[in-house]
Amino acid sequence: MCGIVAYSGSSDEVLPTLISGLKRLEYRGYDSAGVAIQSGKKIEVRKAVGKIVELEQAIATKPIHSSGSVGIAHIRWATHGLATVHNAHPHSSADRRIWLVHNGIIENYQEIRSQLEKQGIKFESETDTEVVAKLIGTLYSGDIRAAVLQAIKQLKGAYALAVVSQDEPGRLIGVKLASPMVVGVGHDEMIIASDVSAIIDRTKKVIYLEDGELIDVRGSDYEIVGFDEQPAEHKVEQIDWDLEAATKQGFDSFLLKEIMEQPRAIEDSIRGRIVLDDAMVKFGGLIDVRDRLKDIDQVVLLGIGTSYYSAKLGELYFNALTDIPTVAVMAPEFRYNKNNIGKNTWLIALSQSGETADTIAAIEEAKRHGVLATGIVNVVGSTIARITDAGVYNHIGPEISVASTKAFTSQSLILLMHAILLGRSDGLDFGQAKSLLQKISQLPGTIAKVLEQCDEIGAIAHKYEKAHNLLYIGRQYNYPVALEGALKIKEISYTHAEGLSAGELKHGFIALVDEHLPTIALATADALSDKMMANIEEVKARKGPVVAVANEKLSIADDTIVVPSIGNDLLQPIVNNIALQIFAYSVARARGLNIDQPRNLAKSVTVE
Ligand code: M6R
């Protein structure tokens, strides 16, 4: 989704910092890019459709000589209007003296546009953002901060804006409401960006702006105020990961790197959180709300996409290990249904990015009913981490590839640990909990064994590389993994795939089965193995090719991906999913696709 970078510092550093910042935001997904830089008395602008390399080309063709100390830049993921140069950011005031970049959505832009058009103002784009630039222009009388504060009074929606004026060289304004914005505090320089990856190579010191705040930067001095102009206190925080974590480290894609680093990532998710002698789980992030956990009578797990599928797995975990009714709800649906929640409901929101607009909106709605809202979030300091009452971080390092992999593994595991935590105060037996916790400790090693078979899984995937459609079937704990496996291959290889409960097959899907429709069957040994074998027979009886994911070679299947057994029905699906990740990656790679940035997708979906 859109990303912004803005810089204040040395004139030599403006352009390189903006471009390298944009490159680090590329993973968010975009289709055009642009920069605006103070040059002499003017602000020079370059924009291009396509990748950042096209923008660099545009700059090489018509160089910008940065003589000022500030600049703003943007990658745009088209929402209002096609990906064109006109629609690309930065956008300007009518007199082209004020320029801004925007991440978010202005809901009432049509209304404001009509008013401005009545005043004779002409528009060059179809975007909601241009309306903000033009509006600020009409309110400007020499103080950009005052004009921005006046303009935002009229805006409805979500925005992170970075604004510069050619009449105030060296001044940069950032403003935030319901869209992410982080400020890097460097040595004699400041960088404003949509997330820390754009900042991390310059400084690890950051400030997370709150909603309803404005930062006024002049050189390396800054002032943060609320929209009411009252000073806002902020501590400078230290980022706990480094640039290396945000590089491919020799892998052909971030996706492969993120799949392969899962043993370490999962070690990090578990570390310090298991107290084996007490058969207990300890989450420092939940200590402040532990008294409220005693009165919980319902659990709602919230997420979307991969985070919803881990919530589906969590639903099964909670219902297996506690007596507290638990349901997984898809975040975009939450606000439009009567969810029967109340002050004894525990809402657990799952989000890798912590910035997903649908999930944020659902949390806000749930909080109006007095629920206890906590998060399972990867990005430290993100919106969901801040708007929830408490929460647990994944601690898996940055996930850069658009398709989520290690986040699913960590989310599922942390949900299992939440279920054990709640279960232990709700009748879950000491022995069962202890044995589960011992198995959890073995998970990184078991995942490592799956990863050792990357080549074998790749060879099987290549046999199915040309398939146009795939079915993924699983039962019980493997059902959410079938859904996630199908999502993964859709996203990165553009193969149509359906995930379903194997029990659903004969209720409709089996009509599709023939020799051209391969089925991926999650058939590791568990309580429902016999039923899964019967489902595989049904597919084979209709000549459907079957790829089994099993603990040993299955003669009935055309191919078997053999995965190690972890000896536990609740954890085995997490292991099986690693094989499905490699399968999807291998198909996408064989097809020569852009694995990390699949078409039309954004990493962080910050609009509803
Ligand atoms: O950051 P989040 O976990 O909230 O993101 C939710 C979904 O947008 C995300 O999982 C999406 O489905 C991924 N592309 C899946 O690979």
Throw out a few tags for this protein:
eight-stranded antiparallel β-sheet, binds 5-amino-5-deoxy-1-O-phosphono-D-mannitol, Rossmann fold, 3 domains, six-stranded antiparallel β-sheet, 608 residues, 26 strands, alpha/beta, Glutamine Phosphoribosylpyrophosphate, subunit 1, domain 1, 18 helices, 34% helix
List the helices and strands and how they pair.
Blueprint: E1 3-8, H1 11-25, E2 32-39, E3 42-49, H2 52-61, E4 70-76, E5 91-92, E6 98-106, H3 109-118, H4 129-139, H5 144-152, E7 157-165, E8 171-177, E9 182-185, E10 190-193, E11 205-208, E12 213-218, E13 221-226, E14 237-238, H6 254-260, H7 262-270, E15 274-275, E16 280-281, H8 290-293, E17 298-303, H9 306-321, E18 326-330, H10 331-334, E19 345-351, H11 357-367, E20 372-377, H12 383-387, E21 390-393, H13 406-424, H14 430-451, H15 454-463, E22 469-474, H16 478-493, E23 496-501, E24 519-522, H17 529-540, E25 546-550, E26 559-562, H18 572-590
Helix pairs in contact: 3-4, 4-5, 7-13, 7-14, 9-13, 9-16, 13-14, 14-18, 15-18, 16-18
This protein binds 5-amino-5-deoxy-1-O-phosphono-D-mannitol (M6R).
The site of 5-amino-5-deoxy-1-O-phosphono-D-mannitol has 16 residues, from α9.
